[in-house]
Amino acid sequence: MRNSFFIADPHFNHSNIIKHCNRPFSCVEEMDETMIENWNAVVTSNSDDVYLLGDFVFYSRWIVTDPAGIFARLRGRKYLIKGNHDRDKTFRLPWEWVKDTCFLKHLNQEGIWLSHYPHRSWRNSFHGSWHLYGHNHGNMPPYGKSFDVGVDCWNFTPVAFEQIDAKMQTLEGFVG
After folding, report:
1. CA distance linking residue 66 with residue 59, whole number of Å
2. What's the CA gap between 145 and 170, in Å, rounded?
């Protein structure tokens, strides 16, 4: 059985994100290894779908990382929504696809809008569709049927569709 997971903002290899987001790690190696272990603990099959909503690996002119090594260690069929820190090396990895945004129609009746950034309005938002995003590292509350699926909000672990569905049931949608 194929499962679906969502995750944003792992920022693999970004040592400063530990300080910026108050992540509970002593070093970037500990953070990266914990997130890889957490990912593979829930994504148990290479046929599971994982939608990564941006900022896979951090790049700077001082940090040169080959993201292929991290990518290869992560289970699942991986899809990328581009984040503001993603670069060509990330786009060239063997993702199932790479997009700016995406509207998924196969997981729920209303549809799910995927973007790295939060939106105040999105496709079919007034008709019950959901919106999942990252970028804010847990600093923006849910709005309508939308919330942050970033690692800083979900114990550094991909979020299963069933968890998303349960949380969406607690949120008020828009009245159209």
Report:
1. 10
2. 9
Strands 112-115 and 130-133: parallel
Q: d(Cα 56, Cα 82) in Å, to the nearest integer?
A: 9
How far apart CA 103 and CA 1 sit, in angstroms, is: 22
Q: pTM of the predicted model, to two decimals?
A: 0.95
**Is 123 exposed, middle or buried, given 0-12, 13-18 or 19+ CB atoms closer than 10 A?**
middle
Mode of pairing for the β-strands spanning 4-7 and 159-160: antiparallel
Decide: helix, strand or coil at residue 78: strand
Q: What is the pLDDT of residues 119-162, one digit of tens each?
A: 999 999 999 999 999 999 999 999 999 999 999 999 999 999 99
The per-residue pLDDT for range 78-112, each reduced to its tens digit, is 999 999 999 888 999 999 999 999 999 999 999 99
d(CA 158, CA 44): 12
How far the first Cα of the chain sits from its last, in Å, is 36
| Cβ neighbour number for residue 160 with a 10 Å cutoff | 17
